[in-house]
Every structure is written in C-alpha cells, then in structure tokens.
Amino acid sequence: MKIATWNVNSLNVRLPQVLAWLAAQPPDAPVDVLALQELKLSDDKFPAAAFTAAGYHAQWFGQKTYNGVALISRSPATDVVKNIPGFEDDMARVITATVDGVRVIGAYFPNGQAPDSDKFVYKMRWLTALREWVRAELVTHPNLVLLGDYNITFDDLDVWDPVGLAGTIHCTDEERTHLRALVDLGLHDSFRLFEQPPKSYSWWDYRMLGFQKNRGMRIDHILVSEALRPRVTACTVDRAPRKNPQPSDHAPVVVTLDASV
DNA sequence: ATGCCTCAGCTCCTGAGA
Questions:
Q1: Which residue of A54, A102, A116, A127 sits 20 to 30 Å from the alpha carbon of A77, by its own alpha carbon?
Q2: A15 closest CA partner among A4, A255, A45
C-alpha cells in the first residue's frame, strides 16, 4: 500500500501532472492514497470527474484562491472530517478519512510567514489544535497516518543552509517543538526510518535556480503511528515531477506499507 | 537589498507562498 502527499500549488494548473504521476506508477504498486494540498479552488471547481475517470475516489475541502486539501484514493474513503473539530478556522487546511483501514489525516500546515508576525501566532494556535485532534483520533484509530505540507523542518538535516536560515520561518525552535510534540503522541517520521541520500528535500524555491542547485528544505512529512510502523518498508521523495515544465515547488513524498498482518 | 518565481484575482499590480 502506497500513501503519498503532494502540495500541488494550484490543482487547476497541476491536474495534468497529478494524473500523469498517478498513471506513471508501476501497475503492481499504484498509489493507493494521495493527499493534496494548496488546491486553490472552491469546492464547485474540483475536477472530480477527472479522478473518477482515472479510477480514483476523491474527497475534497476547497477554498477559493488559497489553501484547500483533498484525499484521492483507490478505495472509497469513509468517515470524512473537514478541518479540526472545535477549532474555529476560515481556512481549508485539513481533511481526515479512513481508507483500507487506515485513518489518514491530510494537512496543509500554516506557513507562518515570519516569527514576529500574526500569522506565526496563528500557526502556533493551529498546531496546538491539530495535536489535540490527532491525539483524539489515535484513541479510536491506532492505524493512523498524518501527512502533508507541514511547513516545518525537523532539524538542520532538512535545510540546505542551516546557518543562514537559522531561526527563520520553518526553522524556528517554536515550530520544531510543536513538530516534536506531534511525534511524541506516538508517531514516527517515516522518512528517517531509512537511510536517505544526503541533502534530501521536498520543496525548492522557484527563484534563484533553487531546484537546480538543490537549495531546498524537507517540509513535507509522513508521520505514521506506532501500530503502522512495523508495516513501513520505504519512504522516498519523488523528485521527478519537480523537473516537469511548470512544476509545483513541492515534490511528492511517498510511504510504502506492506500488507496488514 | 525584501527581490529573485509562480499563482489567483476586485488582473497590467498586489498579496502570499516558503
């Protein structure tokens, strides 16, 4: 079973690339669940028919211009929840559903802009609310995956210039403390369960030849619960779509689980 | 230097992303 996350930075623009990427998977190892972020379209504009034609179900939670998340799945998704219950938010950032016995929480974490900004304050509040939502979901769903665009790096390994970017957005102690608190709920960073190529990132700035120079950050993560950890056999960043014409600034991250015991 | 790209929208500039 393969579960993936991809911030597409406008599904309107990236839909052909998403469909091509799904179609390019090996027939014996398709992507079973794909969490998308930054749809940047309202619910009525979601291209549901295109995913149906490709053999996928879809659940979506859109918003005009900004944000918007979706779960694309080969099996139907059930028990869908949009955003964080009990947390008032006018942004569409979270979608949760159960697919093939796995509780999947797809999330587009706030950017935060700068540590001294109002948006950073919102990011901290949002992170606290998300943690309580994940904590509650784990009680009833031990097989759980939390994945998406976290907009936070774990440590210097995730940053192309850890000295120059120390303390800047995505790299602050406050953000990393929140990220570790999520892990401390009983989750594991799939990517670091395996040896990885040095300087592995999931996002590169569009400017200054960021991708070509591999000046990036690893900010897209797939955390798996303790119960799922024994099933994880691989986690990789697929850099290929970042080489497409008109790419998203993010690359997909994919985790592979073996069949349930 | 606060821009360098990219995208959406009250579209020929601005805000936001990260």
A1: A127
A2: A45
Cβ neighbours of residue A91 under 8 Å, at least 6 residues apart? A63, A66, A67, A110
Angstrom distance, A121 CA to B12 C1': 35
Q: Which nucleotides of B are covered by protein (CB under 7 A)?
A: 4-9, 16-18
Residue A179 has pLDDT above 90, yes or no: yes
Q: Which of A121, A114, A227 is nearest to A167 (CA)?
A: A114
| CA distance linking residue A160 with residue A108, whole number of Å | 22
Cα-flanking dihedrals φ and ψ of residue A113, to 5°?
60, -65
Scanning every strand, the nucleotide with its C1' closest to A38's CA turns out to be B17
The answer, yes or no, to whether residue A187 has pLDDT greater than 90, is yes
In one-letter notation, the amino acid at residue A134 is: V
For residues A145 and A98, give the distance between their C-alpha atoms in angstroms, rounded to a whole number.
Answer: 10
> Which window residues (88-147, chain A) lie with Cβ within 7 Å of strand B?
110-111, 113, 119
Domains of chain A: 2-257 (3.60.10.10)
The rounded mean pLDDT for chain A is 97
- Tokens 């000046």: give the residue: A215
The H-or-E segment that residue A181 falls in is helix A173-183
Q: Residue A261 pLDDT > 70, yes or no?
A: no
